[in-house]
Structure formats: C-alpha cells, structure tokens
TrEMBL record:
The keyword Lipoprotein belongs to this UniProt entry's keyword annotation: no
Family: Belongs to the glycosyl hydrolase 2 family.
Name by which UniProt lists this protein: Beta-galactosidase
EC number: 3.2.1.23
Organism of this sequence: Caulobacter radicis
Molecular function as annotated in GO: beta-galactosidase activity; carbohydrate binding
GO biological process: lactose catabolic process
SUPFAM superfamilies registered for this protein in UniProt: (Trans)glycosidases, beta-Galactosidase/glucuronidase domain, Galactose mutarotase-like, Galactose-binding domain-like
Length: 1070
C-alpha cells in the first residue's frame, strides 16, 4: 500500500526504524562470507531442492484422483505440537539443541503452523514503510533479533524403505535452518514460499528428531517491508513425503487454446530423475469421470531429463473467471511390469492470456479486472489461514462481484490458488518483494536513488530473481494466475528487469506486471519490461489522460485504487463510470480486502479490535490496519455493499416511466444472461404494490437489451413516491458459492411522485415566556427552550421527554480519511463554532393560525457566520423546526456538515425510516442503498469500525420514527434530508489519542443521538493520507446560506408502518 513520508533534504530526516529517527544506511560490504547466512544477501538457500509446481506423487491412480494426500502412505504430517524455545537475541540461542541428547524437557510446547506472537511470545508489530529495526542493509541487530527454536520427533513408516524422503516446509521466516538427527540439511529465507529438502540420508528407521531454528529478521527482511503485521514462526504446514527414486520431480502443464480460441492445446513437461529401468509416461485428461484423451511416451533408462507429452483437445470448454471449467490431468509413471510408480493429479483449465490491440485478452476477448488486494490475515492467528477462511473470502468476493485478486504482497498459501481455479478468480500473483523504506528515500533524494534502492544493487540481484522464479515455479500450473507481479513498492532497477526476463523466459504464456512506485510523480510512466501499466491511486483525471493519450499503448489496470480505510469507499461509482468509458482502462484492484485487526479483550471481557499499539510501542499507530472491505471476522463493512452494487456485471438503465422500458447491459466478458432470473417490484413509499417476473433473457456477453416492465396502472396518492426496482437473481449454480436467488444486480427508478397535501393542525397552543425558559404546549406535547442557551431543554409528550438539544452542528466525528487527508485541520474553525457559539437573541410570539413560534439567533466565530433556529408549535403538538446557516466571511472553508444535533434521553429501542437503507449512506457512497421503508434496533445503527469514527448516516430520509413501544418521536422532512440516529452520545465517536479508546467502548448508554443535516461532505475514497483523499468537489458542501427544515411530532404505539418495514440490517443474500 502506498503511503508517503515527508520529503527530507538530508538522509538524517528519514524515518526507517520503529518510531525513532534514524539515518538510512547501506553497509559498504554487502556480501561477506564471514557473516551468518541471515546477514548475507548472496545466500538465499542452502541444501534446498529446486522449486517445483505444487503437486503430490501418489502411489495409485485411485488415490491420485481422490486428491487427498493425507490418505497416502507416502505422506507424514509434522503439523501439531513441537517443543519450543524463544530467545530474544540471536546471540543467545540454545547451543546444540538440534542434537538428540539435548535436554529440552523444560521447553514449552507450541503448535505448528503458528506465528509465535499469537502463542504469547515476542511483540507483534504493525509497520508500514518503516523497518522494524534500524535499517543498515544487509545487517540485522543481533541483540534484538529474536530466534525461535523448534524440536519434535517422528517415526519413518516402515514402507518408506528404498524411497527418497523429502521434507516440505510450507513457509517460515524470516529465515530458518533445518536439522535432522543432529545433521544440518538446509537453510532458506523467503517467509512466503515453500522449501523442500532431501533428508533421505539423514533419516533412519524408528524415531527421528527434526529441529528448526527460525530467525525473526534476516537480510531477506529488507525485501519484506510490506504494510502488514510483522510476525514470525512456521506459518504453513510441514510434512514429509516418500517418493520413488525414479520419478517426475516436477511437471509444467501448458493448457492453451488454438488461434481460433476453439480447440485446446495441451503440453506437459515432466522433469524426470535418473532411471535404471525403462518407464512409460502417461497423460490422461478427464472431464469429470469422462476420459477425454490419453497419450503416453516410452522413456529409456538414463540421466535426468525433461519429457514432453502433447495433445490437441478439440472443442474444449475454456476456463475463465466467469466460467471456471476445470479438467483433471493425471500424469502417471509406469514401470516395465505395468505397475504405477507415481500418479500425480493436476486440475487444469484451458485458457490464453495476451496483449492484443492494446488490451489484455483472455481467450481472445478483452476482460475487465474487478479486483481486490488481499492480505492473508486472521484475527486470532495473524498469517496462519485455514482453508475454511480462504473459501469464505472467495465466497464473499463472489457475492461482491469481484473477479480478481492481487496476492498483496507475497505468494499466498497454495490452497488459495486451487480454490481460485475452482471457483473462478483471476490472480495477479505477487513476489515477496517490497523494500518500501529504501524505495521512498531513493525517490525523495534522486541523487541517491541507485545507492538506496535495492533494485540497483548487484548484491541483491539473486534474491530478487529467486523470489520471482520460485513463485513462478510453484504456481505455474494454475489457470487462475494470469499475471506475475515482480513485487510491490520496491523501486526500480536492473534487478527487476532481469527478474522479469527470467520469468518471461520460463513462462512466456502469462503477462508481467510491476510499477513498484519506483519513479517520481513527474516520471509517472510504465516500465518497459512489463506488459501493463499498473499505477497506484491514479485519480480519475489521470486515468482519463492515460486513456486519451495515443502514445500510451499499455492498458491500465491499477494495482491499487479506491483506498477503503475506515468509513471510506466514496466515489467508487465515479471510477467505474470512467473505466467503462474507455477501452484502455481495464479495471483495477481495490485496496484492500480485509481489515488487519486482531481480537483483543477488555478487562470486563468485551472483545474489541486491537490496533498496532496493542502489543507495545509501535509505529503502526491506531489507524493503518483498517483498510478492508470486510472486517477480520469476515463481517462486511458498509462499503462492501457499494462495491457489490457498482461492480455488478448486470446493469440496468434508461428507464422510461411512460412505457416501462428499461435497458439491461450484460457486462460479463464471456457469459450470457441465461443463468439469471429477472424480476421487478413496484412500491409506493416503500410498500409493495405489485411485482412480477420478466421472461427469460439470454443477452450475449457485453450486449445490451431493452425490455418492457408490465407495470400496472396505479391510482397515485398525494405525497406518495412510487419507485420500481429491477433485480437479477442467480439461478442455482450460476455463480459459485452463492445460493440460488442471490441478487447479482439491481437498480431502482422513480416512477412518479405527487406533492404532499396540506395538513391541517388545529388546536390551541399556549405560550409561556418566562425568565429562564420559553414553554410551548399543545395536545399534551410540551416544548421547553432554555433562555440562557437557546437549546431545547425538553420536547415531551405526556411527561415523557422525547428529545433535547437542537444545537447547530458543523462538525462530524473524524473518519480515518478526515484525520489524515487534511479535513480535520481544515475544519477546525467549524468545530470551534460548533462547540462555542454566542446566543444573540431569543424571541417568542404567537403567530396567525394558532401556532406559537420561538426564534433563536446565534453568532458564530466572532462574526464569521450566523445561525438562526425557528421552532413553531402547531395545535397537534408537532413542532416545525428550521435552521439556517449564513456565512459572513468568504475566507472560511465550507463546513463538513450543516444541521441540528438533538439528544434522545428516552433511549428509543427501535428506529424506522423511509429513505435509503438498510446500511449507512453518504453523498459519495449511496448507490448500494435503495429508497425503502426500513426498521431496526437503534443499537444496531452504528457500524463497528476498527477505530470509532462517524457512522450511521442515512441519506434521502423522508421521515424517521424512534420509539420504544409507548411514546415515540417522528421526524418528517420538508425535503429529503440526512439523519443519524445512534444509541449513545455522539461525542463517543470523537477521535482520542491512540490507545485511549477502543471499538468496544461504543455501546448503548446515556442519551441517544439524533442529528439532522441539510448537507454533509462525502467520506472520500481515492486515498487516505493526503488531500487527494478528500471527497471530490461535487461531494462537498458549499460556503453559502444553507437551510435545514423538518417537523418533530410525537406518536403513540409502534409507529406508522411496523408490519410493512423491512429489517434495517443488510443481509448477504438480499
């Protein structure tokens, strides 16, 4: 994730280590054999076998087709409990712990896989940009470099005799050494990729000892400066496998399409070890249980070699993210007697990816990337991710109409790619390379760029190349992977060019992406050695400039855009209106998928979202971890629904109320609309009047069709608004992991509206103008206004106080965007005017028609503005309220909001409203919320953001009722307004110093909140950390006279329409 440090004129001003100010350094000697491997960039591995594709060598065809290696006699898991010793310093590790006679009886147990910080050891740190240690590459401070030492025993199965035994370590780091029975077998550094070691010569019959020593930091950590939790340990599975000595150690499956994109082309390269006897290599392609083809080749005895099996596959079903058609490829090695030596299954998909006519093409058609960046994160285990969690992520992505994932910023667990293949996601597979801090300094001091950025340093060339190539080797058989990414925010330089060339040589069938933000803003341009232009956070203006510039030939797919931090996600629709307008713009990857907070528990047992400072002093602060579309427990954030709506591949538009005609646009790239059912619902003020289904549609991919909705004639009623909503629901199996009936796309259109009829409100109103207060009474309602403050002391019905306050309000609780993009500083005058206003006058009088009126005038900011509030009580006890802000100086910034702030001492239990819902909405984030009649608990109207901030705003509200089964309060707007009803004081949401309050502090208590606004800024959505993150101009208020008007009235019972309102909580299926 891109964030910007303040530029400095000298090296001494750069922040690189923790919270301290430190000068970035480059040790004059990068490669020194006398140093330990973990401080030597020339050593990335020892004893490690060459990287290979994810696969397992089963002993039979039946087991291979079942695909569960745990059922194989060739598999032995080492997951589970290990003996563990934690050393806070690399100079103080247990000597000889790898030996069998070492006494580890005092050691504690730890589970594998696990991050040891999740098990109670060491400090978890959340860093962005800064290294968590003083930066002086390649050196690591020994005294503060923790080390975890692991031991466990295992028994080699008797049936493994005569086979090679391979140890597989799924991922650990930053660096680790491995011993078996006291003998060192290898070393590796890359905390996100597997390493395999041949331990055949080290194991013995009976009991064996394995020992692993993990260093928290290593020279490789200079390439792992990502924006995430810095934790350590063995984070993916560890196991042993027994494999024949004569075997296929790797397979490279190339499943493509011919030039007509109709028939399949299949090539499988088998890397065979040396053989003493002849073998047969057989390749069988299965479509489910049906055998599509079989081909084989005889292999003579001899040295290691690569054998290729090829075949044409007529009439193949291609793989795309929309149509994830998979075949099973079974590769077998068979001895001279016909016995299976090795059976290896591989799920494959036939597809091509290329740049053609300046656009990314899959299977010959241009695609649009509706993508998201995904960190691997779990709120209990940090980076250890279960398959259930991965599947849940993909399920939610499918429901959000996301079709692509960037594995930010490292290769993910291999199981994720298999799921992406199965359920249909395009993947940008990213190498575990980010050296953000050195990149930043090289950018800000251009004269030192080549000295600072690791991409220019020859000593680090092998590390860059190996991390890219090892990723390519592991994931080369996955159809979901269509891009290789060289890394993230690591600058530029020849090391990246060479890594790109090596990747392209090994796998020319995929595209390569990398921006790296290695160029300054005025050098904003693509790298020549990649295939697409993948900038970060280009605003809409830059996107249009790129699209219109004929000299820019690469398609643009933003690797990061739409920064979703906190209460953000604004103007998302604007991005996509722009993307759809230009062929050269092919989408992007939202930042990002999941909030990276952890479960923490208050003293009273309440759970809250822990931030970067929860585990000790930490530069990550209390904001940067909450950038996700979903929360760590996979609960959607409100902007999830906005993304789901905007990214829908089925769009509706151009509705004609007179004819009922509506256009349906199929934005799928490959599939028609036959997998969806279409329906319409006609409502008047949120209450259903009629509904129906449309005939089946089969609109082609990227096609447009016009249909007529058979709307009935209706007798309109004064003041009632009529809307029709059209929905597309998925048929069973149409969208993986979503149920039949799931709404994939919808739109709401206005049919008609008639003016409200005048309402007669007869009855006597009394006015008592006293020394301390003015009191208006009618029909059992009583309004008391304090003469000292001009505020409502109480608005009551039959003695029950319904509301208090009515303070002019121009400030909102700071969102994350407001805090970091300059809005808070800009709005300081308005906060002062909200908190400190001067009462200039209060006048009460009877008005013709039987009403009584009180006018309150305030001076704001020493003559900067004025605000006038008028209360007029009618004979039915209702009160017409009007407030008007008049700016008196033109050098003020526009206020972030204009409205009136009431408190709710009666603490209503329920809230019902006619307006947008069910989730919160803002002027730049509302397209996902239809106008309807909604009802829910007041306690549910705030969202549990990682850090408390403004929440619960409701847009286009016609009326709102707050009640508790007895007396209640109704607010009716003269025109649609914004309303915010919360079950706690609004000031609870105000920002406080980091660590002084938590999400669990936001609970129902005290007086509730009701804020009614005429205008309010949007939440912003481009970035968070600079002024670009402020809402676009059209989503800000103006410095001009602004009026808010509405009517307060009591009601009795459960409200106006309790049986007809929909639940005011969004469901994932609706």
């Amino acid at each position: 994730m891109r964030k910007i440090l303040a530029a400095g004129a000298a090296m001494s001003v750069m922040v690189l280590a923790g919270a301290a100010i430190a000068q970035p350094k480059v040790d004059p000697v990068q490669v020194d054999p006398s140093r330990p491997d973990w401080e030597n960039p020339a050593v990335n591995a020892r004893g490690k076998l060459p990287a290979v594709a994810t696969h397992f060598p089963f002993e039979s065809r039946a087991l291979a087709l079942a695909g569960d290696m745990a059922r194989s006699a060739r598999y032995l898991t080492l997951d589970g409990q290990w003996a563990f010793h934690f050393s806070p310093s690399s100079d103080d590790v247990p000597a000889g712990f790898e030996k069998s006679d070492y006494d580890a009886s005092s050691w504690k147990d730890i589970k594998v896989p696990a991050m040891w910080q999740a098990e109670g050891y060491d400090q978890a740190r959340y860093n962005n940009i800064t290294y968590p240690f003083p930066a002086n590459r390649p050196l690591i401070p020994h005294a503060t470099n923790p080390v975890g030492s692991y031991r466990r025993t295992f028994e080699v199965p008797a049936g493994w005799s005569g086979q090679d035994v391979i140890l597989h370590v799924g991922a650990a780091g930053a660096a680790y050494r491995v011993w078996v029975n006291g003998q060192e077998v290898g070393y590796y550094e890359d905390s996100k990729l597997p390493a395999e070691f041949d331990v055949t010569k080290h194991v013995r019959p009976g009991q064996n000892l394995i020992a692993i020593q993990v260093h928290r930091w290593a020279d490789g950590s200079y390439l792992e400066d990502q924006d995430f939790w810095r934790v350590s340990g063995i984070e993916r599975s560890v196991y042993l496998k027994a494999i024949p000595q004569a075997r296929a150690s790797d397979l490279f499956v190339k499943a493509g399409l011919d030039k007509a994109y109709r028939d399949g082309t299949l090539s499988t390269e088998l890397s065979l070890t040396a053989r003493k006897a002849p073998l047969t290599a057989r390749m069988t392609l299965l479509d489910g249980d049906r055998e599509v083809l079989k081909t084989e080749a005889k292999v003579a005895p001899g040295a290691a070699r690569v054998v290729s099996l090829t075949a044409a596959v007529p009439g193949v079903k291609p793989w795309t993210a929309e149509t994830p058609n998979l075949y099973t490829l079974l590769v077998e090695l068979i001895d001279a007697q016909g016995a299976v030596i090795q059976a290896t299954p591989q799920r494959i998909g036939f597809r091509t990816v290329e740049i053609k006519d300046g656009r990314v093409m899959v299977n010959g058609r241009p695609i649009v990337i509706r993508g998201v960046n995904r960190h691997e994160h779990d709120p209990e285990t940090f980076h250890v991710i279960s398959e259930e969690s991965m599947r849940r992520d993909i399920e939610l992505m499918k429901r959000a109409n996301i079709n692509a994932v960037r594995t930010s910023h490292y290769p993910n667990d291999e199981r994720f790619y298999a799921l992406a293949d199965e359920y249909g996601l395009y993947v940008m597979d990213e190498a575990n390379i980010e050296s953000h801090a050195y990149m930043d300094y090289g950018n800000k001091v251009p004269a030192l760029r080549e000295q600072m950025q690791l991409g220019f340093d020859p000593a680090w060339e092998a590390a860059h190349r190996d991390r890219v190539l090892n990723m390519v080797e592991r994931d080369k058989n996955h159809p979901s992977v269509i891009f290789w990414s060289l890394g993230n925010e690591a600058g530029i330089g020849p090391n990246f060019e060479k890594a790109a060339a090596a990747a392209r040589k090994r796998d020319p069938s995929r595209l390569i992406s990398y921006l790296g933000w290695g160029t300054l803003d005025w050098e904003h341009q693509p790298n020549a050695y990649v295939d697409i232009y993948a900038p970060m956070y280009d605003d809409i203006e830059k996107m249009v400039d790129w699209a219109k510039d004929p000299t820019r030939t690469q398609p643009m797919i933003q690797c990061e855009y739409a920064h979703m931090q906190g209460n953000g996600g604004g103007n998302f629709k604007d991005y996509w209106d722009t993307i759809y307008a230009y062929d050269k713009l092919q989408g992007g990857f939202i930042w990002d998928w999941v909030d990276q907070s952890m479960y923490r528990y208050a003293k009273d047992g309440r759970r809250y979202w822990g931030d970067g400072g929860e585990y000790g002093k930490n530069p990550g602060g209390d904001i940067e971890f909450g950038d996700g579309m979903i929360q760590p427990d996979r609960t959607p954030n409100p902007h999830f629904y906005e993304v789901r709506k905007v990214l829908s591949p089925i769009q509706f538009g151009a509705f004609d109320p007179a004819t009922g005609k509506v256009t349906i646009t199929n934005r799928h790239d490959f599939r028609d609309l036959s997998g969806f059912d279409f329906e319409w619902v006609l409502e008047g003020d949120g209450v259903e009047i009629a509904s129906g289904a449309l005939p089946p549609l089969a609109t082609r991919a990227r096609g447009v069709e016009t249909v007529a909705l058979p709307l009935p004639a209706i007798a309109t009623r004064p003041g009632v608004e009529y809307f029709v909503t059209v929905r597309a629901r998925a048929k069973a199996g149409a969208v993986p992991l979503t149920p039949a009936g799931y709404v994939v796309g919808w739109e709401q259109f206005s049919v008609s509206a008639t003016p409200k009829a005048a309402v007669s409100r007869p009855g006597p109103v009394t006015l008592a103008d006293g020394k301390d207060a003015v009191v208006l009474e009618a029909a059992g309602a009583k309004l008391t206004i304090d003469r000292a403050t001009g505020l409502v002391s109480s608005y009551a019905k039959d003695g029950t106080v319904l509301a208090k306050g009515g303070a002019p309000n121009f400030f909102r609780a700071e969102t994350d965007n407001d805090t970091l993009n300059g809005t808070v500083a800009q709005q300081k005058p308005w906060r002062v005017m909200t908190d400190a206003r001067q009462l200039r006058g209060l006048a009460a009088r009877k008005v013709d028609g039987g009403t009584a009126q009180v006018v309150v005038e305030y001076a704001l900011g020493a003559g900067a503005a004025s605000f006038t509030t008028t209360y007029a009580m009618a004979g039915d006890g209702s009160v017409a309220v009007s407030g008007e802000l008049v700016p008196l100086k033109d050098d003020l910034p526009p206020p972030v909001r204009v409205g009136l702030w009431f408190t709710l001492p009666a603490q209503p239990k329920t809230v019902e409203w006619l307006g947008r819902g069910p989730h919160e909405t803002y002027v730049d984030r509302f397209t996902s919320a239809p106008i309807g009649l909604w009802r829910g608990a007041l306690a549910d109207q705030n969202h549990d953001y990682m850090r408390p901030q403004d929440t619960g705003n409701k847009l286009d509200v016609r009326w709102m009722e707050l009640g508790s089964g007895g007396a209640g309060l109704r607010v009716e707007a003269d025109k649609p307004l914004m309303m915010q009803a919360l079950a706690f004081p609004y000031t609870d949401l105000y920002r406080r110093p980091a660590g002084t309050w938590k999400s669990s502090d936001i609970v129902p208590h005290g007086d509730g909140t009701l804020i009614i606004d005429a205008a309010q800024w949007g939440v912003g959505g481009d970035t968070t950390w600079n002024h670009v993150g402020q809402p676009h101009g059209k989503y800000r208020t103006k410095l001009e006279p602004t009026r808010v008007s509405f009517r307060l009235s009591p009601f009795a019972g459960e409200g106006t329409t309790p049986d007809k309102a929909r639940p005011a909580r969004a469901t994932e299926v609706e």
